[in-house]
Design brief:
The protein has 10 helices and 7 strands. By secondary structure, it is α/β, with parallel strands linked by helices. Iron/sulfur cluster binds next to helix 1 and helix 9.
Length: about 240
């Protein structure tokens, strides 16, 4: 089922949850024979996973899609993630590229490789060094990176307060906001998905629409990933202790 044009560039402006799903998708595409490239110019197809939580994130996604299209005008563009479910019309109206398709990440994987997204996720371990959103090589101007200097200024202010009053506010701020702005800023973390989307239908929230139907990962899958991570961490810390 491998596509003839199989070099794919992936990018996103989504949150940690959707970014994780894009990494699962990437792993599935690679196991289905696709090559993931790091610059749009080298791609036959672009997959963009967009956030639709607010207008400015939709604007940011559309800007990036336009930027990518300008750099790779012949690449086919597929938009996925929450924005594909919530704001497809807006993207269609404002994107420069005329040929854009919209699919869920599971549909992308199924249609190109025949593989099942959840089956790939069962054995997937994230590569924490792989961060499409901050890959300096792709050169995209992104909201998350633009927020970076603002956050750095907040951290500097908090560090000043910490020095004066002996508090630890800067560390707490960095820990609590790292998923939103800078991934792994303080320490690496292993994500283990337990559920996807949400059971409820609150009127103020678009997550059920954006993230699709609620699904629950089998308990044994969650436990086996947790065991793998904790044994890796124990081994690593044993090794570190053994060096001193
Ligand atoms: S809409 Fe919500 S769930 Fe979807 S990428 Fe944005 S923040 Fe994440």
């Amino acid at each position: 089922m491998r596509d003839k044009n199989c070099r794919i560039f992936l990018a996103h402006n989504s949150c940690l949850n959707s970014a994780y799903d894009l990494k699962v998708l990437s792993a599935g595409l690679v196991s289905g024979g696709y090559e993931v490239v790091t610059r749009p110019e080298d791609a036959d197809e672009v997959l963009f996973s967009g956030c639709s939580v607010r207008g400015k994130w939709v604007d940011d996604a559309i800007n990036q899609i336009n930027e990518i299209h300008a750099r790779a005008p012949d690449a086919r563009i597929t938009v996925t993630g929450c924005i594909a479910n919530v704001s497809a019309e807006t993207v269609r109206d404002r994107a420069v590229a005329s040929m854009i398709s919209f699919q869920t990440q599971a549909q992308v994987l199924q249609s190109r490789t025949g593989l099942d997204f959840e089956a790939i996720d069962r054995s997937f371990s994230q590569d924490t060094s792989q961060q499409y959103e901050s890959d300096p090589g792709n050169g995209l101007s992104q909201l998350r990176q633009r927020v970076g200097p603002e956050k750095a200024a907040v951290v500097a202010q908090l560090q000043k307060i910490d020095r004066e009053f002996g508090t630890a506010l800067a560390l707490r701020y960095q820990r609590e906001t790292k998923g939103f702005v800078f991934y792994h800023e303080v320490e690496p973390a292993e994500l283990i998905t337990v559920t996807r989307s949400c059971l409820y239908r609150c009127s103020f929230c678009s997550i059920p629409k954006g993230r699709g139907p609620f699904t629950s990962v089998p308990f044994e899958d969650v436990m086996s990933k947790a065991r793998a991570v904790s044994s890796f961490k124990c081994n690593t810390s044993d090794e570190v202790q053994g060096q001193h």
